[in-house]
From TrEMBL:
It comes from the Bacteria. It is an enzyme of class 6 (ligase). GO terms for molecular function: ATP binding; magnesium ion binding; phenylalanine-tRNA ligase activity; tRNA binding. SUPFAM superfamilies: Class II aaRS and biotin synthetases, tRNA-binding arm. Residues 97-309 form the Aminoacyl-transfer RNA synthetases class-II family profile domain. NCBIfam families: pheS. The keyword Transmembrane helix does not apply. It catalyses: tRNA(Phe) + L-phenylalanine + ATP = L-phenylalanyl-tRNA(Phe) + AMP + diphosphate + H(+). The keyword Cell membrane does not apply. This is Phenylalanine--tRNA ligase alpha subunit. HAMAP family: Phe_tRNA_synth_alpha1. GO terms for cellular component: cytoplasm.
């Protein structure tokens, strides 16, 4: 049996015939199995020796099958790559990356959420009440001008800032309120390297008992140092917004190797003007946000601008053009 088996294995031209040889000799109806059946016909004293030789034969056949299998596989592998130059460099695999705007937004949200701010949102198509009136912005304020704001025939408008979400949140939640609202804002600006008619803001609002300017300052210093590095300096420059008093613009000075440090404006902020709380109280019809009970701070920043500052991007239009030569740098 062994001689016949080894001959069959040796002469097997391919995997299929090798498999057939295996079945013929070792299979359930194979020759070795049949031979094992003879065992019971033998006298007791001959059984051990017979069993042993059966095992030897099985071992020899199994080893031969394995060896031949490996040899056939090697031939098959060699044939598979015949004609292929395996020394050629591999093909580049292009993997996508997050857009710089998405990255800065995610980073900002993550930092502020760690500080206890919850996400809030509001509609991009707003009314004058939520975008202006409730934010203490008088009818003749230049920001409300048709030259600066996109109005619909219905009198609705595309929100000019995410501060409208402050109003919507206070209408629907009770103090303490601690929210951030990232989202689009729209202005009828002339498009150039630093202006688009749609851009991205991130609004923040914290209202509770005894919220102070120190809280505002601590929050924003921590925020910008987390976002841009621990050496980042902040400057609170007095400013005016209708909905905060006092109001500030924040400038930061980055310390990045190879870049000249200079002050750059990054955000507006201030202590919520009591007139805003009065408008909210009137709109809600209760005293939950009475200026006698609560104080708060608010801030708003341009995310496009932050991305440009962080990565030294010189033209805001690069952020919306989807030019892969630009985007690839962030993958
Ligand atoms: N809404 C202001 C802007 O768009 C920014 C701001 C938000 C200022 C909150 C103060 C408080 O310029």
């Amino acid at each position: 049996i062994q001689t016949a088996a080894l001959a069959a294995i040796e002469s097997a031209p391919d995997g299929q015939s090798l498999e057939q040889a295996k079945i013929d000799f070792l299979g359930k109806k194979g020759r070795l199995t049949a031979a094992s059946g003879l065992m019971k016909t033998l006298p007791k004293e001959e059984k051990p020796a017979f069993g042993q030789s059966l095992n030897l034969v099985r071992g020899a056949i199994t080893a031969a099958l394995e060896e031949k299998g490996a040899a056939l596989q090697e031939v098959a592998d060699r044939e598979a790559i015949a004609g292929i130059d395996v020394t050629l460099p591999g093909r580049e695999i292009h993997s996508g990356g997050l857009h710089p705007l998405t990255r800065i937004k995610d980073d900002a949200i993550q930092i502020l959420r760690r500080m206890g701010f919850a996400l809030a949102e509001g509609p991009e198509i707003e009314d004058e009440f939520h975008c202006f009136d409730a934010l203490n912005t008088p009818a003749d304020h230049p920001a409300r001008n048709e030259k600066d704001t996109f109005y619909f025939d219905s009198g609705k408008l595309l929100r000019t800032h995410t501060s409208s979400v402050q109003v919507r949140t206070m209408e629907n939640q009770s103090p303490p309120v601690r929210i951030i609202a990232p989202g689009s804002a729209y202005r009828r600006d002339e498009i150039d390297a630093t202006h688009l008619s749609v851009f991205n803001q991130l609004e923040g609002l914290y209202v509770a008992e005894n919220v102070s300017l120190a809280d505002l300052k601590g929050t924003l210093v921590y925020f910008f140092q987390e976002l841009f590095g621990p050496d980042t300096e902040l400057q609170f420059r007095p400013h005016f917004f209708p909905f905060t008093e006092p109001s500030f613009e924040i400038d930061i000075k980055l310390h990045i190797a190879g870049r000249a440090p200079k002050w750059i404006e990054v955000a507006g902020c201030g202590i919520v003007d009591p007139a805003v709380f009065s408008a909210i109280s009137k709109s809600r019809g209760d005293e939950a946000f009475s200026p006698d009970k609560v104080t708060g701070f608010a801030f708003g920043m341009g995310l496009d601008r932050l991305a440009m500052i962080k990565w030294g991007i010189k033209d805001i239009r690069l952020l919306i053009e989807n030019d892969t030569r630009f985007l690839k740098q962030f993958a």
